[in-house]
Specification:
Structural class: alpha+beta
Oligomer: single chain
Number of domains: 3
Order of helices and strands: HEEEEEEEHHEEEEEHEEEEEEEEE
Low-confidence stretches: 36-40
Radius of gyration: 54 Å
Strand content: 25-35%
Largest sheet: 6 strands, antiparallel, barrel
Mean pLDDT: 87
CATH topology of the largest domain: Elongation Factor Tu (Ef-tu), domain 3
Number of strands: 21
CATH superfamily of the largest domain: Efflux pump adaptor protein, beta barrel domain
Length: 420
């Protein structure tokens, strides 16, 4: 039976060294491959360059503006209310027609009011007749009282003459002294009576004046009532009141109307203003006096902010703009317009076109175009003050950088774009 041969230890040691070297080489190769894989850039997402909207970062003056839709409205509008109850008999003027202050728009009828006017005329005539009768009666009473005063005054003068004559005769002893005393007493009594009659005359004058004043007051009341009834009857013919254009007649023939009901609206089309609806988030910087431009789609009109509504409705603030200059053709009340208000001018700032998303004071990610326009990489950009079409760049971009402003939501998960 053959015997086993003993291996040489050197050969065994060489095999172990070979295995160790192979293991080390494999580990090194794996490390190199792994590092190479991690060093590779991620694959760029292909995007058609014509499908994206880009802009270049600029430095200079940036005009901050806010924009909102609105309508043209007349500065002078007159709503014509019903001043009395009545029924619409005729509509004489249609909306859209130019009117003068005396143009009759609607004719109302109210037979009861006509009867009340006739009654008021009769009452006034009766009151005036009673006043004349009272005046005649009082004048007659006054004449009688004045005649009485005149008579007593004449009797007093005669009594004084008699007393003077009796005084001389009594001193000469031609008549008894008692006769003189009687004459003197009669003159004194007539003097007192004259004073009383004069007082009665003055009181009668005061009384007559009071009675006449009361009667005149009744006549004045009847005149006022007649004027009221006449005014109400006149108001049955509804007139424009101002020169302008009849805009609306919200009633129909045969309709019964009550006092205060709106019958028509007249406006002056040559004096218009714009009522803009500015988003609440932008309206905080709008103040009276700022410049504005109103686009009527047939021309742009310069304007100035004259009022900012303190209330917010449905997320919007109403801003009134006074129009300056000649109105373009087609400008009329209720015309839809777009308004732009200049907030301020910023000197020497970095700015770029406003991206599809991103508000004032926020930090967003934009794709910056590199490699001569062949690629775009995602960068963080801090935004400052915003305008309608532009926004201030605070950090993240430099003058001359080209960025993509389109909505990047379709490229979520990709940091690099390949522009084709």
């Amino acid at each position: 039976m053959p015997m086993d041969r003993v291996r040489d230890p050197a050969i065994k040691r060489k095999k172990q060294i070979r295995r160790i070297l192979l293991a080390v080489a494999g580990a090194v190769a794996l490390t190199v491959i792994t590092f190479a894989i991690y060093s590779l850039e991620p694959a760029a997402y292909p995007v058609e360059r014509e499908a994206v909207w880009t802009d270049t970062v600029k430095r200079g003056e940036m005009v901050r503006q806010v924009r909102g839709p609105g309508t043209l409205v007349p500065e002078e509008v007159r709503w014509l209310p019903a001043r009395t109850q009545g029924r619409v008999e005729r509509i004489l003027t249609k909306p859209g027609v130019e009117v003068t202050p005396d143009t009759e728009i609607i004719e109302l009828v109210n037979p009861e009011l006509i009867q009340e006017l006739d009654d008021a005329r009769l009452s006034l005539a009766s009151a005036r007749a009673e006043l004349e009768n009272l005046r005649a009666q009082l004048e007659s009473d006054l004449l009688e009282r004045e005649a009485r005063v005149t008579q007593v005054s004449a009797d007093l003068e005669a009594a004084k003459l008699q007393a003077d004559a009796d005084a001389e005769l009594s001193r000469d002893g031609l008549i008894p002294e008692i006769n003189y005393k009687r004459s003197k007493l009669n003159a004194d009594q007539l003097s007192e009576q004259l004073a009383i009659e004069k007082q009665r005359l003055e009181k009668l004058k005061d009384s007559n004046q009071a009675r006449l004043t009361a009667r005149r007051s009744q006549v004045a009341q009847e005149e006022a009532l007649l004027r009221l009834r006449q005014s109400q009857v006149d108001s049955l013919a509804v007139r424009a009141g101002i020169a302008g254009v009849l805009q609306e007649v919200p009633v129909e023939v045969g309709q019964q109307v009550q006092p205060g009901d709106t019958l028509a609206r007249v406006a002056r089309p040559d004096t218009l203003m714009a009522e803009l609806q500015i988003p609440e988030t932008q309206a905080k910087d709008v103040t009276v006096g700022q410049r504005a431009a109103i686009d009527t789609r047939n021309g742009v009109i310069d304007g100035q902010v004259i009022r900012v509504d303190p209330a917010v409705q449905n997320g919007y603030v109403q801003v009134d703009v006074d129009l300056v200059g000649e109105l373009p053709k087609g400008a009329r009340p209720d015309l839809s317009v777009d308004g732009t208000i200049e907030i301020e001018r910023l000197d020497d700032v970095l700015y770029v076109g406003r991206p599809a998303y991103g508000e004032s004071g926020s930090t967003i990610q934009l794709f910056k175009v590199i490699n001569d326009g062949s690629r775009a990489v995602r960068v963080d950009v801090s935004l400052g003050r915003a305008s309608v079409n532009t926004i201030e760049v605070v950090a993240g971009l430099e003058q001359g950088d080209e960025v993509i402003l389109s909505d990047p939501s379709a490229w979520d998960g990709h940091d690099t774009l390949k522009l084709k």
